[in-house]
């Protein structure tokens, strides 16, 4: 068993898996639910989700989308209408067979995703080209039965958003697919501070029923990939299955082209695994429930002044739009510092009686410069200076995390041209390799290394050659990113 | 069959039920889902829910609550731990018996409400008085099987929030129960423009498992009551069933006192039924997706100027925090005016080429003064004057709706002292009557008149006397509000 740190959490540097499993509970992000594979998102974790939600939702609205709500229960027969779709989702379905004290005539599936039920409604709502495009998103819970559940990463029930759009032409639908793909990558970069590899999935990794699937793939601290959002061009597959058709401008009946795209509570797992360290969580400031924690120091009567000032400063920060918190619990400063470090708060501020007298605070960053004893360097800032400086410091801190993640990713990514190099590379990160494009060869690589093709990067250079595994001619016209994945 | 208006909707004044059923679809608030009793909330209706959500959530945060997310699936055995609770909810449960291709060892209930699963988690999280109070809310979907579903009012699945709190003492828990009860009433008044009757439920109408239930009851346009939010003091019932106990300051083991409180998408039904009229929806401005619609008038080239100016004005309004929309669809002004009237937009603005030249707009209110031909009076406002006036006009309009609803309610409420008067009164509104408090007498009244005790109003005067139905001595020390209810 790995040695636990003072925090009661196995260090990340020793065992990423144990670190993750212990940290999500210890930091009170989540807990296990009673039913197998379900999770409780605790207030600290849910606040991360709310911050993610509001900032992502704003991007959806800015790109012309509106929200709606579709039913949780889907008649079983609907799933069967799109052949690939049902094949992909059948093993994961939860089914309601009894309700209101009776057995149902037709079982109801708890939605694993909503293409089918939304397809049915779009068929009703769309009759003319004037009804298009339809640009709808929904924030919802979905259920996919998990045999090996992991909090945030793979849970039987999870929260997500699913966009579903219908268009008059392939070009328009593809444009939408790529637009939302870019929205996800931009969001991951500018909100979660994760630089994503953007690319198209190989046929074997596509969404069940899609013509093309695009994904954003983040690199975690152990070099594994985590798929953090997907955008699908569904062609006319669901339009055929659900009769989503319209009269075009020439009065001819056409099938609509549809898309779907989703991001889920998995993204919280990505944030934990992309930024964390031995001391615990490292939260990007735009998703941090608490951006600045102020710890007043002093005992008894001596504590009064610092505490009052701390609350005054927190109120000023709140007015400037900063999420500030005063920790005036009855506990030692050392305990508090460790606790907020574990919880990943970006900026930590100390304020003792002597600081109060001197009119300043001491501020340390969760990640930043260290002194020669390996401790965080503290900046001394006058009160007004401090309040004025925080918003900018948070932005700088965001860039620091993003840059750190980018450097880490680039240092753990490499082109490889033979299978020995491939095996060594996927053990530590992303391998960029030429591949023949055959499913059996993908399976073979997976069996040998546990790595799978994550995506064909959109920004990859044109290149042809021999498959890294079987030597056949390469497909795709460029290298594919392979990695072990969550 | 009732005569339909020009709008294709049966007038409210002829048949409230037909009017409601037709209007929710016609105004594109909602649609029926494929599975029995489920609904699709369409973007226009969902926007109302989002506005409700954000304003209610702010009130929860302001009173110290945090959000979290608990699982959809509850092991069947949990429901059975609180005897009254399982008795109350059993007939309405939807049950998952199969998942992941197998029959489950223990069936999972789709949550009808979350006291049980949250109780289980609180038991885990609470051990000392220092862990209390816990003040958590969740926004979620719940399922209660409905035999006679009605969009927004009674659906198999609905959206709601459910607050669940745990406290060290009865006093604290009761204070919380009443605080949230007041938050609901204040929200209904100041956001939905509905003056609620606030009161405690009689024992027969209590939440299954509660010690005391408080509700807000709105009067609809047909004189019926609609229960719009409830707040429950649960005593130690769930604490006993789920072992939510803590060490108090004297190191003695105590049971926690818990509360729960909820408001749902039913509130959208209340808004429709409390304010609507023969022309369609009448939305209170703080819940209206569109607060001001600007209709540019003119054909061909003549339309260009008004349209450009309309978008300019809408942008200025948006900057002032007003939800403004320009209707530049290719349709006649008459069609547009009817459409926005049906959709309940508070302020409607016309802008034609001559108005543009004169530098003004014509503004009409959805509800307001009428000219001698029965048409809405239009105000002429200069462009700047118009932009500056709108926020205040919306507030005045809110007060107008609230006052109108209050007058309507008061005119349709009366004290009654004999059963003939009682029957006549509940046919048109609320009857305030003395009652013996016996369940069988409540049942008898319901069988005779369809009316039920809605609540014992908190602001009722002390009064004793004979039961309006059976003549026995009155209970409760004051009059009870009876009404037919949704
Ligand atoms: Zn190959
Ligand atoms: Zn009686």
Automatic annotation (TrEMBL), chains A, B:
Gene Ontology biological process terms in this record: prolyl-tRNA aminoacylation
Classification via CDD domains: ProRS_anticodon_zinc, ProRS_core_arch_euk
Catalytic activity: tRNA(Pro) + L-proline + ATP = L-prolyl-tRNA(Pro) + AMP + diphosphate
Superkingdom of the source species: Bacteria
InterPro entries in the record: aa-tRNA-synt_IIb, aa-tRNA-synth_II, aa-tRNA-synth_II/BPL/LPL, Anticodon-bd, Anticodon-bd_dom_sf, Pro-tRNA-ligase_IIa, Pro-tRNA-ligase_IIa_arc-type, Pro-tRNA_ligase_II_C
EC number: 6.1.1.15
Cleaved signal peptide residues: none
Cell compartments where the protein resides: Cytoplasm
Example GO molecular function: proline-tRNA ligase activity
Function: Catalyzes the attachment of proline to tRNA(Pro) in a two-step reaction: proline is first activated by ATP to form Pro-AMP and then transferred to the acceptor end of tRNA(Pro).
Domain notes from UniProt: Consists of three domains: the N-terminal catalytic domain, the anticodon-binding domain and the C-terminal extension.
Family, per entry: Belongs to the class-II aminoacyl-tRNA synthetase family. ProS type 3 subfamily.
Protein name (record): Proline--tRNA ligase
Organism listed in the record: Egicoccus halophilus
């Amino acid at each position: 068993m790995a040695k636990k740190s003072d925090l009661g959490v196995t260090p990340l540097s020793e065992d990423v898996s144990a670190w993750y499993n212990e940290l999500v509970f210890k930091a009170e992000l989540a807990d296990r639910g009673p039913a197998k594979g379900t999770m409780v998102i605790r207030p600290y974790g849910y606040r991360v989700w709310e911050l993610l939600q509001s900032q992502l939702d704003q991007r959806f609205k800015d790109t012309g989308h509106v929200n709606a709500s579709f039913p949780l229960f889907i008649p079983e027969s609907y799933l069967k209408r799109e052949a690939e779709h049902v094949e992909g989702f059948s093993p994961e379905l939860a089914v309601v067979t009894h309700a209101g004290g009776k057995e149902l005539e037709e079982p109801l599936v708890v939605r694993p995703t909503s293409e089918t039920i939304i397809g049915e409604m779009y068929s009703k709502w769309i009759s003319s080209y004037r009804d298009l495009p339809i640009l709808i998103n929904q924030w919802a819970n979905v259920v996919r039965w998990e045999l090996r559940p992991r909090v945030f990463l793979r849970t039987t029930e999870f929260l997500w958003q699913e966009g579903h759009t219908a268009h008059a032409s392939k070009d328009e639908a593809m444009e939408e697919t790529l637009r939302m793909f870019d929205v996800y990558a931009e969001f991951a970069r500018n909100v979660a501070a994760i630089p994503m590899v953007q690319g198209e999935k190989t046929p074997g990794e596509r969404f069940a029923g899609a013509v093309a699937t695009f994904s954003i793939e983040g690199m975690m601290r152990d070099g594994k990939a985590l798929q953090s959002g997907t955008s699908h061009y569904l062609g006319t597959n669901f339009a055929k299955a659900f009769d989503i058709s319209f009269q075009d401008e020439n009065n001819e009946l056409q099938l609509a082209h549809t898309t779907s795209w989703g991001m889920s509570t998995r993204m919280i797992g990505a944030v934990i695994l992309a930024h964390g360290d031995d001391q615990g969580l490292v939260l990007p400031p735009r998703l941090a429930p608490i951006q600045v924690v102020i710890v007043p120091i002093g005992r008894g009567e001596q504590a009064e002044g610092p505490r009052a000032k701390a609350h005054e400063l927190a109120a000023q920060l709140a007015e400037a739009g900063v999420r500030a918190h005063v920790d005036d619990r009855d506990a030692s400063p050392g305990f508090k510092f460790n606790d907020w470090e574990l919880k990943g708060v970006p900026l930590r501020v100390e304020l003792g009686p002597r600081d109060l007298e001197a009119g300043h605070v001491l501020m340390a960053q969760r990640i930043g410069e260290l002194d020669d004893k390996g401790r965080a360097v503290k900046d001394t800032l006058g009160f007004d200076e401090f309040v004025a400086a925080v918003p900018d410091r948070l932005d700088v801190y965001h860039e620091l995390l993003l840059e750190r993640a980018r450097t880490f990713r680039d240092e753990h990514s490499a082109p490889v041209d033979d299978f020995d190099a491939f095996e060594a590379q996927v053990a530590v990160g992303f391998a960029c390799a030429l591949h023949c494009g055959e499913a059996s060869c993908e399976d073979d690589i997976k069996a040998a290394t546990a790595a799978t093709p994550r995506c064909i990067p959109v920004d990859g250079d044109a290149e042809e050659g021999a498959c890294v595994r079987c030597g056949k001619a390469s497909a795709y016209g460029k290298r594919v990113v392979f990695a072990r994945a969550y």
